[in-house]
């Protein structure tokens, strides 16, 4: 008697493989979305801390030198202060001069804008107070930088002497009108404090009253 052997092939059909891949994609997508949000939030927190550290360093520089530093306009990390006057009001954070991070969490340089009257070697800014020798500004000095909630919105801060900007993950290439306000090399900036319609900039500034208060507490101003 002959025995008949039946060969059976086992495996996944194309439909079954497609279903598995679909399920796998949904699982990965469900994980990666929240993970990316967490990573973005970590980058933003890191950059906020970098900006705060930079602000502290600028005030420390002012306490030691009687002025805030000029921007870096050549990319070497040094302030550009030829002849005791800033070569430009805008540039990058002079990170070598200040001893701070050179970039934000997205590895891009921080924009730095200053009212040059606070950064030159001339005593005072021309307001009625008596000039203090070796101090570039006075008790009555006000900065020329403004911060708004949107490009044409309400004032968030005025009379600002120094502003520091991270242009976020998209840096300055985005078309958002509010981001353009932060990269057009004038004295007006926008701080929306949240991502909205392509805006992801992070903006920090030195409050004029805080700066003056620190100088008075250190006996640099009367």
Total of domains: 1
Strand content: 5-15%
So what's the overall shape?
A: elongated
* Largest beta-sheet details: 4 strands, antiparallel
Strand line-up in the sheet with most strands = 1-2-5-7
| Terminal Cα span | 117 Å
The H/E string reads HEHEEEEHEEH
Outline of the structure:
The protein is an alpha+beta fold.
Topology:
Elements: H1 14-65, E1 90-92, H2 95-98, E2 111-114, E3 145-148, E4 155-160, E5 162-166, H3 177-181, E6 188-190, E7 202-206, H4 208-217
Parallel strand pairs: 3-6
Antiparallel strand pairs: 1-2, 2-5, 3-4, 5-7
Keywords: Membrane, Transmembrane, Transmembrane helix
Organism: Cycloclasticus zancles 78-ME
InterPro entries: Pilin-like (IPR045584)
């Amino acid at each position: 008697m002959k025995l008949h052997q039946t060969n059976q092939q086992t495996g996944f059909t194309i439909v079954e493989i497609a279903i598995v891949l679909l399920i796998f994609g949904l699982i990965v997508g469900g994980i990666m979305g929240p993970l990316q949000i967490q990573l973005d939030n970590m980058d933003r927190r890191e950059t906020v801390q970098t900006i705060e550290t930079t602000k502290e360093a600028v005030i420390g520089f002012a306490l030691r030198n009687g002025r805030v530093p000029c921007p870096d306009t050549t990319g070497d990390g040094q302030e550009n202060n030829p002849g005791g006057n800033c070569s430009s009001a805008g540039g990058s954070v002079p990170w070598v001069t200040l001893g701070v991070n050179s970039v934000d969490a997205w590895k891009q340089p921080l924009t730095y804008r200053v009212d040059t009257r606070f950064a030159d070697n001339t005593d005072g800014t021309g307001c009625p107070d008596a000039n203090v020798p070796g101090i570039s500004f006075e008790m009555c000095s006000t900065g020329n930088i403004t911060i708004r909630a949107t490009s044409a919105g309400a004032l968030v801060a005025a009379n600002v002497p120094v502003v520091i900007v991270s242009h976020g993950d998209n840096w300055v290439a985005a078309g958002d009108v509010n981001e353009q306000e932060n990269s057009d090399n004038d004295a007006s900036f926008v701080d929306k404090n949240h991502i909205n319609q392509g805006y992801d900039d992070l903006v920090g500034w030195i409050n004029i009253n805080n700066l003056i208060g620190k100088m008075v507490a250190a006996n640099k101003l009367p």
